[in-house]
């Protein structure tokens, strides 16, 4: 499929060559031994063969290859002298090549160059929305769906342009019509929530969300989750309540990496919600997906599971429980800060350290956590010679399950 054909294809087929192009692209011009070449020789051969062709696609692939090599060198921490290649000079050469192609209205180069300015790749790490925006617009006008989505975002948030919701919706619609899942999802949510100047468009919103579900991928994974929220409770005459279907949609988003959808499914399998059976293994599985994506609440859910265990699926491990609580606390979650204070004060899963515990309690209390405030009051009372146990705290001992929920939830 040619690059021209790609512009007439749905978003899922408009995938530009990966930055790790490697030597495979050279085999047509230098033969089967291309894989034996090092990066510097590959670059030299590419440059030599570019002089023999006027094909924009070849020049574009070379520019992407140069960016990939530069990124690899920078990520490795290898010096330019050791690598034999200066990554800054390579990025400069790639930028110039992309600019020449963009000036010839090659949309894939326009988009990639715009993305480089937007991220700071082509501007010494500093974002340049002003240069990125017109490139996204130009590429989108040639049918590039991702560029259309990025142009819509720029208009929505005023990145490199004046905020204009009407134009934002225009670009979202054009991109969504090419099955771009991000555009379809955003447009669907905007219609449902009456955002971007849209009113009374819930049927259109459902239409776009359903299209977003059909084309959802790991990068744009929100549409199944958003549609699931509507089916969880029912919405209007056209979206019936169906908790089991909502669970299917949440699962779809979760498997594509949507953190909140994964947390919801972890909760569903822990407590038997959304017509799901209680299943500790699946609960832990989904909580782990969310936690690995830095979802603080899911980290605390895992902490709770490790506090009590779920034999034979999961052994009780207080040290692991503490580690998950600390990860959530480091992200600023108040109840995680309280949990870290309690664990550290009592020596649960970690070395006992009353001073460090006090630091955690103060952090949690500063965010309004009532339990942390109570704990600090108890500590102050004990330090002043009191019992350290206010009357309202003198209650019957809790069961292990209650204790788990009290500490970490």
From TrEMBL:
Region (Disordered): 385-409
Entry keyword set: Repeat
Classification lineage: Eukaryota, Fungi, Dikarya, Ascomycota, Pezizomycotina
Highest taxon above the source species: Eukaryota
Biased composition (Basic and acidic residues): 399-409
Keyword rRNA processing listed: no
Protein name per Swiss-Prot or TrEMBL: HCP-like protein
